[in-house]
Amino acid sequence: MAGMGKKGAKRVDFIDIAKGITILLMVVGHCHLQPDFKYFYLWIFSFHMPLFFFISGFFFKPKSNKKLIKTDLDRLVKPYILTSILISLFLLCFDSPTAASHSLIGTLVGCEGNEATKFQLAGGLRSGPIWFLLALFWCRLFYNVLYGICGKYEFLLSFVASLIAWQIGYKIINLPLCILVGLTALMFYSAGYNFRKICLENIKPWHYIIGISIWALSVFTETYLNMSMYIFMRFPLSITTAVIGTIIILKCSTYIHGLFAKILSFLGRHSLDILVAHTCAMHRGIILRWFDIHWSNMTMDLSNLVFTAVIAAFIISYKDYRLRTQKLATCDK
Fold first, then answer.
1. Closest Cα to residue 132, out of 53, 246, 58?
2. Which helix (H) or strand (E) holds 231?
3. Cα–Cα dist 54/50, whole Å
4. How close are the terminal C-alpha atoms of the chain, in Å?
5. 137 and 76 Cβ atoms separated by less than 8 Å
6. ∠ at Cα 250 (246, 254), nearest 5°?
7. Contact 109, 125 (CB under 8 A)
8. What is the C-alpha separation between 139 and 26, in angstroms, rounded?
9. CA distances from 263 to 52, 61, 202, 203, 310 (A)
10. pLDDT tens per residue across span 287-308
11. pLDDT in tens, 156-207
12. β 231-232/225-226 pair status
């Protein structure tokens, strides 16, 4: 990917910029966009979660399963567990024991599945947006194992494994702890790893014209992709569109610079913190009730953005404080 920064963002920055754009779209996508902004909503859901798996695969390097598990338990599973516990304690103190227990059960379930699934887990209870953390944990582990066993055919096997997991999760049973969603994401993770060999600079302008046309067709034919519910409407168009949309967002990110690029890059570097904050903000209704604030779509949407921003700022500041404290402690030694 050398030379990626010649016309805009630097080689590494454009990845963070793309993540920053997408994490903002994820938060907005959970607002009340339908029916007035239906096509904007469909556009967001055409690529936003696959992009994160794609980018993670872009940076894949084979390592021992033991080392990978140790790293990802701390980076992905630990914040998943801490966030779930804090939310459950909040619900226990300020809502009800039933709400708290439902939250804990949802933590074990992870993703919600869908109406077509024959064997639903716990009546559709779920962990919320942080399902991504567990799914990425499983996806990275499965792919590392797959690559170690048969690296030559990893793309084909990843795609087949994803399709099998998708059909099981969609039609039969939604396994707990997002195991099947992690398997379903293998196709996007592998696509990211293999795309690294191609390089954005090798893609011609007419490729983008075709890609944008396919993307527009997908959106305006109301093709819908929701990984947490195993919904890949109009397969394989939905999967193709997710990859195309991801690549186009990455390309557009290379042309963003200045203050806007710095802001988006910062958000991208802290995308997991924003994800955790947004999951906490999903329970803002309890706080709104305290202040007897009238519930409306506008109130819920504005509070969604405000609470996500405030909680994310707290998490990022706290992590920065801990990092500076650790550095000072190291220097004192």
1. 53
2. strand 231-232
3. 6
4. 40
5. yes
6. 165
7. yes
8. 20
9. 18, 28, 28, 27, 16
10. 988 888 888 889 999 999 999 9
11. 999 999 999 999 999 999 899 999 999 999 999 999 999 988 878 888 899 9
12. antiparallel
Mean pLDDT of 259-272: 96
Dihedral, 105, 109, 112, 114 alpha carbons, nearest 10: -120
Cα–Cα distance for residue pair 94/71, rounded to 1 Å: 34
What whole-number distance in Å separates Cα of residue 166 and Cα of residue 173?
Answer: 10
Alpha helices (runs of H) in 196-296, residue ranges in sequence order: 205-220, 237-253, 258-269, 271-281, 285-290
Q: Give buried/exposed letters for 3-18 (b at 16+ CB in 10 A, else e).
A: ebeeebbbeebbbbbb
- For the residues 107-133, what does the mean pLDDT come to? 87
Give the DSSP H/E element, type plus range, for residue 304: helix 297-332
56: which DSSP letter?
H
Tokens standing for 333?
């030694």
Among the listed residues 264, 298, 311, 259, the one whose alpha carbon sits nearest the alpha carbon of residue 24: 264
Determine the Cα angle at 247 with ends 315 and 69, to 5°: 50
In 3-state terms, what secondary structure has residue 226? strand
Residue 155 to residue 143: CA distance in whole angstroms: 10
Q: E strand or H helix at 186, and its extent?
A: helix 186-195
Spatial CA neighbour of 166 closest among 222, 219, 229: 229
Residue 120: other Cβ atoms inside 10 A: 15
CA 91, chain centre distance (Å): 25
Residue length of the chain: 333
Q: How far apart are CA 238 and CA 97, in angstroms?
A: 40
Residue 139 structure tokens? 């996806």
What is the token pair recorded at 123?
């009546």
> What amino acid occupies position 1?
M
Compute how many other C-beta atoms are within 10 angstroms of the C-beta atom of residue 317: 10
